[in-house]
Structure formats: structure tokens, C-alpha cells
Amino acid sequence: MSFTAARKNLRVTTYSKVVFVLLIVSIGFLLLFASLFYYNQKQEKEFYTTSSSGLEREINGLIDLNSDSYISLINEITYWDDLVDFVQTKDIEWFDNSVVYLIDSYKVDYIDVYTMEEEFVSKASTTKINSKNFIPKEVFPKLKNEKLIKFYTKIPEGIVAVYGATIHSSIDPFKNKTAPQGYFFIAKLLDEKYFLNIHNVSSASVVFYDPEKKISKKSIYYIKDLKNIKGEKIASLFFEREAKVDFTNTRNILYIMLVAFCISILIFLYYAKKWAQKPIRLIKEVLEKGNMSAIDSLKSIRGEFRHIGKLFEQNYNQKIQLEKTKKKAEESDKLKSAFLMNLSHEIRTPMNAIMGFSDLLLKKNLNDTEKDEYLKIIQISGRNLIDIIDDLVEMSKIDSDLIEPKYSSIDLNNMIHATFESIKVTVPSYKNIDFKLIGPKRISKRNVITDVVKLSQVITNLLTNAIKFTDEGFIVLDYHLDLKNSIIHFSVKDSGKGIPDDLQEKIFSRFNKVDFISDRDNKGLGLGLAISKAYIEMLGGTISLKSELGVGSTFTFSIPFQFDNEANEVAKEIFNETELGEEEIILVAEDDNINFLLIEKLLNLLNFKVIRAKNGQEAVAICKNNKEIDLILMDIKMPSVDGHEAFAKIREFNKNIPIIAQTSYSFPEEIDKINNTGFNDFISKPIDKEKLYFIIKKYIKK
């Protein structure tokens, strides 16, 4: 494997970089710790070595000083004429009176005298030493030559330091003029008292050295070998002094530093993993797998990673929204194709009927029954065409967010009953259906605030669909108020054919129609339920479906409401269609001849007189010259001067005449413009006879 390939295979992460830097720092610290520890050990070793050397010099100096005193004593005594005579006479009495006192005076433990023939003469000792004549034979020849000697020997009582000198007359203090006359020895027992004296002077403890005893490396000690006359070691003294300097604390501090550093490394690794590796791993999971739980985990971490988590969440939501938008666009393309096919079919069907039966009406040999039948077909086809166009316009307005709820105070029970009755009369006579309305047990007398138009439209759509799917059986509209939660619950239940399971999920989508019902019932574009669902959600509610094939369907929806506590009971005026006009004069400003002809016929049937203006300019002139006009129907879109401009000019000289706008547009912005202009009211095309009559009577009566 090449270096480049190996480098690619090596996973270098941010966490590994942090760990690598930490490793370098750790190595540096460990090197520093090792250096300090080595220096401490070296200093300690040098301290004990130097201290031991100092103790050695000090002990040797003390022993030499002690030896010097004994050497001075023995030198002084051994050039004494009386002592020379004693060796010859062996006068024990003289020895006891003149020599024995040295034991107490000079604190020696043993004194003895030998002749030149190595014959023991006499001795004196303390109670510590009971042995006598323990001087080795090898001492005498050497002493004879050297005149003064020191050695150690072992006796039953212990180890003694022996000092020996040859005896000379007083005329030879340097012992180099006369021959020696005998041998004089003094000895000092190395006992506890001897050791205590050394300890008091040197502060070092003294014991005989035991080779099997382990010596601590941290001891300040010195081993003094004791040799006999032959130069052989017969014992050793072990001197030990307490160290005043303790390096343990220094080492403990170093150990504490090491432990603290190791703990710091572990803590650093833990938090590096928690604050760096884990968030980076979560980010990797988000980027590679789109893991939402990883985003939630990122958001739970404090600091910048929480912000990154929120950014990921926003990005994810945007991605979901884009996918939804893409899906919606794809569905829109499919719906567009379905729309064009449905539109072509649904519009051509009523148009074909209108055109065909209109041609038939032009024939002169038709009887009245045939004419009435053809006219009825044309009327039904025209209404179907208007319903199709209304659904398309309404769906377009919903898609463009041009529709907003328009809340008003209504008598809910009266509205539902009126809607129910208006649908009930449309049930075809060939269908055997029991049409029922079930309301709450207790009817509230208070008005509720909701959008009456949208609510009425939803109920109408659901009841109309139920009629389409039901040939016989029942259709029930049920509603009740949940006062605790301020919700109105509605249900429309039928015993019709039911809806297959595979269609139930799509039933609220646009242009979806069930194909197994009869052609005469399957009219429209399949937008009714889609519009109803949009209206219900617009009002803050929900809708659901339960259906079983061959049993029936139940549509349930709920919307929130609130009571209108400030509403007054206002008596509503109900106009009877038989209450005709009294030949009031109405000015109709309409540029389209067919539309004017329809309006003129309707107004004549209602016993009103009609004056026509073909444009806005003509309407202003007629109104200015004719003071008997009672009401104006003003088309908005006209040549020369449109309806808005004509309204403004008429109001300059007539502030009170009612002016009703008539428009082919029903978009909110157009309605708002009409209201802002100041029109008294408006009516949408195609014009409904009842609504036209109601509006005219409303303002003429005033």
C-alpha cells in the first residue's frame, strides 16, 4: 500500500487531533515529571552520600581524638624509671599503689605489664573485664620494633581497643636511645557506655554491625571495621545518624502532581468526548443519515452546538417543506391533467345540452310541453355549468389564500334548518330516502359567532354527496354543541353505497369522483369535499370519514365556536315573493345586451320600471336629468367610464340614491374595492332572482 493510500485510509478526525495534541502535552509533562523525579532521586542520593561521608570523617575524627588521649597517656607512663624497676622487681604493692589509679583517672578498663621475655607480670581491670593475659603473642615482636601500637582484639567480654608501648627509662622519652625494658598495655572495652559517649558527642547511634541486617538507602551511616594485630577484621561498628532532611514530601508532591495530571487527562478526555466527539458524531449522523434524533440530541447540548442543531432542524424542515412543495407540484401537474380532462368533459356536457336544446327551441312546430321540457333541461344545464365555474373559482381562491373567514353572529338552529330544508327539496323523486335532521335536546337561544356562508356550504356539500350515493334508506344530519370545549359537532350519515377503502384516503383530494354511481348523480368536478375540508380547516376544525362498502358512510366534522353575548334579538324581515313592486324606476347601467335583457325581464316580472344606460358616462347623465329614479344597478366593468368612476360622479350631486354594484368577479379584493368605493350593496353574476328581489326591496323600502 502506498503512503497516499494509507493516508486516505487513516481516519483523521477532530477528536483524534485533540487526543494527539493531548498526547504530546502528556509526553512533555511525563518527561518533565521524570526529570524532576530523577533530579529529586539524585539529590537525595547525593545528600545521603555526602552526609554519610561527613559522618565517616566525624566518627574517625572522634575515634582518633579518643585514641590520641590514650596514646598520650601510655607514652607518658612508659618512660618512667619506677615502672622500669617494677618490671625487674615485680613489686605488686607498688603496682597497686602507683599504677592502678590510672583506671579510674583515665577511664580505661584494663592495664597489664609484660617483661621483655613476654612474661606476664601483673594486671588491673574494672569489673567489666575479668580476662587476663589476652594479649596475642604476635603483638610483642611488632611492638618491640614500633614502640607504640594500637589494635583490636576479641575477648569473652567483648571487643576491646588495646594500646601498647615499650617501657623505657626517663632519660629516653622518645624511646630511641635505650633498649626497651618491658611492655605496657591499656585496653578499653567497646560497650554500651562507650557507644553512648560517642552518641552524645556525634548524635549518631552506634552498634556492632550485623551483615544480615538490611541497611536503608535513606540512612546516614558509616561502618567502621575493627582489625586485630594481623590486620584481620574481627568486627565492625555501625554508626547511623537521623537525616534531618526528608525527601518523601517532595516525592509525594510529585506523585500528587502525576495523579492530578492523570485525572485531568481523564477529565479532559471525558469532556472532549462529550463536548467534541459526541457533537461531531451527531453532526456526521445528521449529514450522512438525516437522523432526527441526532438533531434533538444536538439541541440538548449547550453552546454553539445547540445553535447548529437548530440550524439543522430549520434546514430539515425546509427540506421537508421543499419535498412537500415538490410533491404538491407533482400532484398539481397530475391534477392539472385531470382538471383539463374533467373540465372539458364537465363543461361540454351542459353546454352541449344548452346549445342542442336551444337549437330545438328555434323550431316552430314545437308544442308547449316540449318547449317546457327543453327549457327545463336548459335551465338545469345552465345551473350545472354555473356550479362547475363556482367550484373552480372557489378552489382557485382557496389556493391563492384569498379567502378568509368572515365571522358574524347567527342563529345557528335557524341557519341549519334553512340549509337542511333547502337541500331536502332537491332530493330526486325516484329516490326513496328518509331525510332527517337531529338537533340538540336543548336549543340555545343565544347566537353563535361563525362564518355562516362557509358552514352552510359545507353542510350543503355533504348532504348533496349523501343524496348522490344513496338510492334508498336514510340520510341523517346530526349536530350538537359541546359547551365545555366550545365545539360544534356535525355528522352526516347515509345508508348509501359506501366508499371503497382504497378511495377513502383520496376522497378529500381534488377532482376525485366515485365512478360506480349513476351518471345522472355523478355531476361536477369532484371539488366539493376538497372545498369543504379547506373551509373546515379554515374555521379551525377537522373532518373525518367512516365508510363501509354496501352499508353507508358517515362524515363527521367539528368546528370551534363562541356565543355572541352582545347580540340582540333582531326580528328578521321576510319578504314574500308575491309582494311586488309599485312601478319604482330602476336605472340599469349594463353594456352587455343579453345581461340587460335578463335583468330587464326579471325586474318587469317584479313590477319595476327599467331605464338602461349602456356605459358609466350615460348612467351619470341619465341620473342627473331624471330625479325620479329610485335605485341604480351599476355594472362595474363598462367601456368609457367604469362603475367606480360613475359612482363617484353620481355621488357629487346625489348623496342618497341607493347604488347596487353588479359584478362578474367575486374575489375578496374586488369586493373590498366595491365596499371601499361606497356602494350600498353588491350582487354577483349570474344574477339570482330571489337575491336581486331581496336587495331591491331592502333599499326601496327604506
Automatic annotation (TrEMBL):
Signal peptide: none
Top-level taxon: Bacteria
Domain Response regulatory: 585-700
Claim: NADP is one of the keywords in the record: no
InterPro entries membership: CHASE4 (IPR007892), CheY-like_superfamily (IPR011006), HATPase_C_sf (IPR036890), HATPase_dom (IPR003594), His_kinase_dom (IPR005467), HisK_dim/P_dom (IPR003661), HisK_dim/P_sf (IPR036097), Sig_transdc_His_kin-like_C (IPR004358)
UniProt keyword annotation of Plastid present: no
Cited Gene3D superfamilies: 1.10.287.130, 3.40.50.2300, Histidine kinase-like ATPase, C-terminal domain
Segments forming domain Histidine kinase: 342-563
Family matches, as PANTHER family: HYBRID SIGNAL TRANSDUCTION HISTIDINE KINASE J
Protein's UniProt name: histidine kinase
